[in-house]
Design goal:
single chain; about 220 residues; alpha+beta; Lipocalin; 9 strands; about 30% strand; globular
């Protein structure tokens, strides 16, 4: 239990926020389960555990703030209507929620409440089945600036920052909260070499380890 509390403190300092859930939120869930079991076993500690639970929830919520990597700027002006539709994932910094996925696409459409529906799909090459995640995105500031936050679970959001896009909205470079998250997207399953080189240079200049990029199989 103590180690999980220490991990939460570390998370609050680093501002880590993976997509769709950050590490501190996963720890939070595990910690809350432990608290629930303890509450059943030791009723006399209920009030104490309640306050501890609220404190942990607050820590998880505040420490996983949406952000943008140092030195990066979101596209402005940004045309959200031109951005809607389906994008193919060309490359990504791999992480557990996309592990073993190929043929990854992201489709964006408008929700009735003004937010953006996010429909991510990919084929799991190990489990031999399609995986789909539905979420929503909101603009962090105005809708003319491509700084958004995306949620796939309740009130927990991760940063989604369009830091480069061509004038025809055919190719896009997306940064997450920090240098652990990066995506290259295209309207088609391939991307021109010149665009690829420019995006890689921009990412490298920001501090990304571009050699760690996983190039998505699109077939």
């Amino acid at each position: 239990m103590q180690s999980k509390m220490q991990a939460l403190k570390k998370c609050s300092k680093t501002g880590v926020n993976p997509f769709p859930l950050c590490a501190c939120q996963n720890i939070c869930a595990s910690y809350l389960l432990g608290l629930f079991k303890m509450t059943i076993m030791k009723k006399t500690y209920r009030n104490t555990l309640l306050f501890a639970t609220l404190a942990i929830l607050a820590a998880a919520y505040t420490s996983c703030k949406v952000s943008i990597p140092n030195g990066a700027t979101a596209v402005k002006p940004f045309d959200q209507d031109k951005y809607l539709g389906t994008w193919y994932e060309i490359a990504r910094m791999d992480f557990k929620f996309e592990k073993n996925l190929k043929s990854v696409t992201a489709t964006y459409s408008k929700n009735d409440d003004g937010s953006i529906k996010v429909d991510n799909k990919g084929y799991d090459m190990v489990k031999k089945k399609w995986k789909q995640s539905i979420g929503k995105a909101k603009f962090v500031k105005g809708n003319d600036e491509a700084r958004l936050k995306v949620s796939f679970f309740g009130p927990f959001y991760a940063g989604y920052n369009v830091i480069e896009i061509d004038k025809d909205y055919q190719y896009a470079l997306i940064a997450g909260n920090n240098l652990d998250y990066l995506w290259i997207l295209s309207r088609t399953k391939q991307i021109p070499d010149g665009v690829k080189a420019n995006y890689l240079k921009k990412a490298k200049d920001l501090g990304y380890q571009t050699n760690d990029l996983l190039w998505t199989i699109q077939d």
